[in-house]
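This section describes the prediction task in plain terms. A model, or a person checking by hand, is given the sequence of a single protein chain and must write out its three-dimensional structure as a string of tokens. No templates, partner chains or ligands are provided. The sample shown here is typical of the held-out split.
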Amino acid sequence: MNVTDPTDKHSGRDSERVKMALAAGAIVGTWFWDVAHDRLTVDDALTHAFGLEPGSSHRELRLEQVLSAVHPDDHAELAAAISDALMRGGRYAHQYRARNADGEYRWIEAIGRVDLDAQGRATGFQGVLIDIDERRLIETERDQAQTLLRSFLDAAPGVVYAKDRQGRLLMGNHGTTELIGLPPEQYVGRTDAELLNDPVQAAAVMATDERIMATGQSQQLEEDISFPDGRRAYWLSTKAPLRDADGNVVGLIGTSLDITERKAAEARHREIEERYRLAARATNDAIWDWRMADGQVVWNEALADLFGHDRMETDAQWWLDHIHPDDRPRIDADIHTVIDGGGTIWYGEYRFRRDDGSYADVLDRGAVLRGTAGEPVRMIGAMLDLSGRKAAEAALAESEERLRFATEAGDMGFWDVDLVHDVLIWPPRTKAMFGISPDVAVRLDDFYNGLHPLDREATSAAFAAAADPAQRALYDVEYRTIGKEDGVVRWVAAKGRGHFEGDRCVRVVGVAIEVTARKAAEARLKELNEHLEIRVAEEVAERTRVEDALRQSQKMEAVGQLTGGIAHDFNNMLASVIGPLDLLSLRLGESDPLVSRYIDMAIDGANRAAQLTQRLLAFSRQQPLQPVPVDANRLVSGMSDLFVHSLGGTIRLETLLAADLWLAFADANQLENVILNLAVNARDAMPGGGRLAVETSNCTIDAGNAEQHPGVPRGEYILITVADNGCGMSPEVVAKAFDPFFTTKQVGQGTGLGLSQVYGFVKQSAGHVKLCSEIGRGTTVKLYLPRLVAEVAPVAPAAPAGLRMPAGSRELILVVEDEPTVRQFSVEALTALGYDVLAADGAAAALVLLDQHADIALLFTDVVMPEVNGRELADEALRRRPDLKVLFTTGYSRNALERDGVIAPGVQLIGKPFNVDTLASRVRAVLAETR
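The expected answer:
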């Protein structure tokens, strides 16, 4: 059945919806209405959906029969829609509720078309019905959610906004518009730096926003806000990262509430609480607080003292049940008459049952606190035991009256001046503002005498104006007081009004707030503004300190690069010394013992020079390392013998090893050398003996303790601390302690590379080192090594060394070396080992020889060479000869070359300087290697 009109702009969309409905099984029936002959036919599905009689699909119906299943509330609109469709023809779509065979109403959507003849009269009306009940439910929930969101934004107090990742505003409520002073269309898409008048405020807000988006952590903070009209206020802001469906931070949402009044209210509330607490403790009355919402009643301790009931909370029914049965109906009726009748004060006398079963005669009074609509919210009162306290009844009633006045006046420190009887009433809170003890009686003279001389005239004039029947002014002043007993100067803000009987002022009543803290804050703000230059100077000093630290870091890096280059050159030179000496020793054998001893002395000196280059490489973070999982506790414990032999008998060694210490990932041998190096330095700093402590611990650095570990990034570390109580170092020496070749020892007693090696090893191991020292108090060195958090396979044991100098089988080896002496030694050594050798001084000559000699089995090349380096030469050689074996040699460390991308991990490498034995073993191993 064709239910679409190709000329109708909605037909394509309707057709798509019908297809989707068919696919989802949502079509509940089809109809065709022969309008000209008023014959309506439906299918079985529609018959069931409309609850029609079975078999209706096999006969013609009238429209009224089908419409009888439509919900009464939707009938009129449906009839109008059908009438409109018959008049205009074409597309028809309408939604309404229909009753199905189960008697339930469900939302359906009718989609069809009306065919018109040439005279514009409807001839046919056909279409389908789609079940949209679930969709309507979803749309209703969506509309409710959107309405709720809009209502929330419109009703939310303060400022509500959202920003994107760059800090640009995406939306804001009325409070946001008021704060910025621009309509939304002018501030959406702009940042705080572009909108706020105060650049300092804008920078602070954006820095906070960026921190929250970067950390992904919500934060609540108080902000000092400047409005466009010059007003300032305190805002309580809650900010949280805005995340997308995948949880990625894409912006920030925030709310801010003006808490200026709340802060003042909290201060007033604390004063009220304190006054109420003091009043409740100072009286022997049973004070009660009845909350109407749930009937809870809170009592003070006097309930137990007076009547023996050991409880602080009850419900109202408990109180009513303890009233004598003869008094209960009267009291119940009286108190509800006041509560339900809009009254404020209730009082009554009745008998109240004590815990021991006896009854006490009590006078009970309460005041009803009502909401803005007059509804009762709370009732606060006091129960007076009349047994033995009749004489105090009037005084207690007066105290209750003062409490009521204080509540009505704002629950602050209140005051009441009875001008008729010249009586001044001050509670303890008000007395404290004038430095008077709570139990000291006061008179009106205490008020005037307690005023600061500079404020006395203005304050007295304001009080006189408030008591003047002709003016009846509001008493609203701020003044200073000088404490009568303690002499302390306080600031007080007071407000009050006179109470008149005709043309006579009989009382002046008001409240007072101590504003000393506010005045002090204003003074501090003024002082801050006046001392801005000092703050700027401090900021400049801090920036200078940071720049000095940066320069020191850059200096250490530059020196490291220099020492690394020096070590490389030394290794090249030592290679041309150690190798030939080794060859000479092999040639001479034991023929001349004296010559052999000279050769051994020369080789020993050259090896010590090689060790010196290793220290230079350590400082420059280029030494070869073999990191493995390390238990620092076991390593320190295993160094006991080394410590004993190195420290001597005058040094007392203490080791403090942490339980459950984490593992580190470092070169165990180098770490042991570092700790021993620090111990020897400590020994030299204690020539007369002392204490050396070696301590291990787990160290987690986070936001809470980052200041205790300056310069160390946040994370988990194994901390090794070596501390002595020796002579210590001056700040100038500490600043240079890690510099290579710097030493405070006598000539010949040190190379100046000990602490440099420590520094280089720790940095190369991705750790950090801190040195603290003070003249006369000793030195502490802390090594921070990253915690091992990944699973690392155990290091396989090294294979046992083979026989000395395995001989060659006349394989042809191509030696490429730009240093002539090293090249000559390599050629002669390999020749002596039984190999055929070709030599080249660079990549160009090497490639020519490689093309000329197809039987070359091994390429032995230096890594660092001018123009084309050894790795590039090897890549080209392997491209031409894939089966070629390659052995690299260099004066740099494998770590440095791998880190810089010069060679790949796993390639065969021999370090300079090397002897003949090492060369023979490595060449044989590479040639025997199976690809």
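For orientation: The first strand starts at residue 27 and ends at 34.
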